[in-house]
Specification:
Elements lengths: L6 H7 L13 E7 L2 E5 L2 E3 L1 H8 L4 E8 L16 H15 L6 E7 L9 H11 L4 E6 L6 H12 L3 E4 L7 H10 L5 E3 L12 H15 L4 E6 L23 H19 L4 E4 L11 H14 L4 H15 L7
Parallel strand pairs: 1-4, 4-5, 5-6, 6-7, 7-8, 8-9, 9-10
Antiparallel strand pairs: 2-3
């Protein structure tokens, strides 16, 4: 991460006591990361930075790039500019496929303005063409009951694309459940445990989050990314953020602080509809990549997951949902 805008994060992470990698042979597909070749609110993060993290000891074989408003077209119609992201990442993915021993980008999720109505087809088809066989769907967070959104969603469904949804407001999840019931043939992916995750939340807040998780868990076409909990939500910073803690957290402590959320979500959805995710480099403000995946492995062990369940939650679900081609 030899980028000046990453210096503060690098210095903070250097204070970490390196952990021994747990279960280093377990194959992993990381279904959620971003890339920025120009500074973003989370710094610069390019393919080499991703490889530095995925190569830190865990057996991360493939990844899924998720919408980052990165590489957009600089000119042309506004609604078509996001297509530039799929083109950019498809080129990076080709580079990743040619490098032996490093994680390969196996799928692309980008963005489309989902209030275009039928016009969104031009955008989605553009993504399919620019993505060179890797584009799988979009991520968005609009009013899920809006008529124009529904018109756009009709097109997404017809094109057999996936829909990633994220909002810090987990109380929207029942609305997402209604959308899932309306479109049972569309795979809907809930990002980051459904919203803002606070280990110090009140009992009432946790109960409300559980109620919302239960609402979407009842929809068989909805899957959940169990991760992304180590990120700021607006002005709110989690207690393990680099601006609230002198030294990075270890996996045992992180597992202990967050286990109640993870086990509830895993039991609600089942491991076959869950996938651990890094959300890097956003969550890198709170934990290193090596420590984060150690945390997930501790959670899986504490939950008593079988070998087949671990294969699902660490890679199988992601491979199925995002149609990631197995490595040769």
């Amino acid at each position: 991460m030899a980028h000046p805008d990453n210096d503060e994060k690098v210095r903070w992470l250097s204070r970490e006591t390196p952990e021994t990698v747990l279960d280093p042979e377990l194959p992993i597909i990381d279904p959620h990361h971003h890339l920025w070749r120009v500074p973003s609110p989370w710094g610069t993060y390019d393919l080499e930075d991703l490889w530095e993290d995925t190569g830190s000891g865990h057996n991360v074989e493939q990844t899924v790039f998720i919408d980052a408003r990165s590489g957009y077209r600089q000119d042309g119609p506004e609604h078509l500019k996001p297509i530039g992201e799929s083109a950019f990442i498809a080129t990076v993915a080709e580079q990743s496929a040619q490098a032996t021993g490093n994680a390969r980008i196996g799928a692309i999720i980008s963005h489309a303005y989902m209030k275009l109505g039928a016009v969104v087809e031009e955008v989605l088809v553009g993504h399919l063409e620019a993505g060179r066989g890797l584009f799988r769907g979009i991520r968005s967070a609009f009013d899920l009951d809006d008529a124009r959104f529904i018109e756009s969603f009709d097109v997404l469904a017809r094109l057999d694309l996936t829909f990633d949804n994220f909002s810090f407001d987990y109380t929207r999840l029942p609305d997402l459940a209604r959308l899932a019931h309306r479109y049972p043939g569309v795979t809907i992916i809930v990002n980051h445990l459904g919203g803002k995750i606070d280990p110090d939340a009140s009992a009432d807040e946790v109960a409300n989050w559980r109620r919302c998780i239960d609402a979407v868990a009842r929809c068989p076409n909805v899957v959940l990314k169990v991760g992304g909990a180590q990120q700021a939500a607006g002005d709110w910073l989690p207690p393990f953020h680099m601006h609230r803690r002198d030294q990075p957290i270890g996996s045992e402590e992180l597992c202990e602080r967050m286990y109640a959320y993870y086990i509830y979500a895993i039991e609600a959805f089942g491991p076959e509809r869950c996938m651990f995710e890094s959300n890097f480099p956003v969550d890198k403000e709170c934990v290193s990549y090596r420590t984060l995946w150690n945390t997930f492995k501790r959670i899986a062990t504490r939950a008593g997951l079988s070998e087949s369940e671990k294969m699902s939650i660490f890679g199988g679900t992601a491979a199925r949902v995002y149609r990631v081609t197995p490595l040769d």
